[in-house]
Amino acid sequence: MVDMAVHASAMESAGPYDRTRALNAFKLGDRTFYWTTRICALLVLLLLGGIIISLIVGSWPAIVEFGGAFLTTQRWAPSADPPVLGALSPVYGTILTSVIAMIIAIPVGIGIAIFLTELCPMWARRPIGMAVELLAGIPSIIYGMWGFFILGPFLANTIQPFFINLFEGVPILGSIFGGPPSYLSLFNASLILAIMVLPFITAISRDVFATVPPVLKEAAYGVGCTTWEVVRHVVLPYTRVGVIGGVMLALGRALGETMAVTFIIGNSFRISPSIFAPGTTISAAIASEFAESDGLHQSSLMLLGLLLFVLTFFVLAAARLMLLRLQKKAGS
């Protein structure tokens, strides 16, 4: 009994000291965590600011030399005297290929996601889902090589002649689908981009479709709705914010893709109304010419990079604003 009393007395006398030390240790750990996360966040901002400053500094000679005409000039002749360099053709190619890619990838990707969540047998969902996700892991240069050796010749020998003959003589469409077939074209690059961004749209759409409460779908089926009606009136409205977010993520990937597009677009600095004509994009132009550039030529390529940065920023900012508006509307 005496030993127990002595032990209890020792614990009571040591208690306040131990609690104070534990509290101090907790506060130290909390402060350490707070400042570590804050420094990491500041490093991200510093990195972003450093990239912007380096692009502005590198492109400043081209900005001074060409000014606003850089955006409206189609010709790209770095070896001319004086050099004539314009961004109109790469900007046009970047926007066109991304838009065509999204037109192809969005319905296909969302359709695959709907099939996987609503119609696909359970035994086939995992293999198909894994196959789609594996597409995202293939290096872009592999897509480019496959497009150059396999897809390009196939399109030039089968698909392109069909559309050229189908719309020959038709106003507007005859120009869009006109011209001789080509292994290297804006359309071929757009199709490669569509295949590359398809896994992002499919995977994100599938995940957000899976968040729909089963009770909502069961209630719709209970009143006699078909699968299409359930998808249209329950699944898509409930998940539209997440789906749009996935689409915007895929669009950002399409705008900045480099190697696969460089292989198959043709790298031609001219604007043609035909999607079967060769062209170029901002990233493809930088990748194909930067290693051998110097002086004003290199500065112009840096300015192209700055334009791509600004274009991507505004696209993602617009997407963010649209998502916020949709969230507010859904909340109200």
TrEMBL record:
It holds the Pfam family BPD_transp_1. InterPro entries: MetI-like, MetI-like_sf, Phosphate_PstC, Phosphate_Transport_Permease. The chain crosses the membrane at residues 39-63, 91-116, 128-156, 162-179, 186-204, 301-323. Belongs to the binding-protein-dependent transport system permease family. CysTW subfamily. PANTHER family: PHOSPHATE TRANSPORT SYSTEM PERMEASE PROTEIN PST, PHOSPHATE TRANSPORT SYSTEM PERMEASE PROTEIN PSTC. This is Phosphate transport system permease protein. It is found in: Cell inner membrane; Cell membrane. Keywords: Cell inner membrane, Cell membrane, Membrane, Phosphate transport, Transmembrane, Transmembrane helix, Transport. The gene is pstC. One of its GO terms (molecular function) is phosphate transmembrane transporter activity. One of its GO terms (biological process) is phosphate ion transport. It comes from the Bacteria. Residues 91-319 form the ABC transmembrane type-1 domain. PROSITE patterns: ABC_TM1.
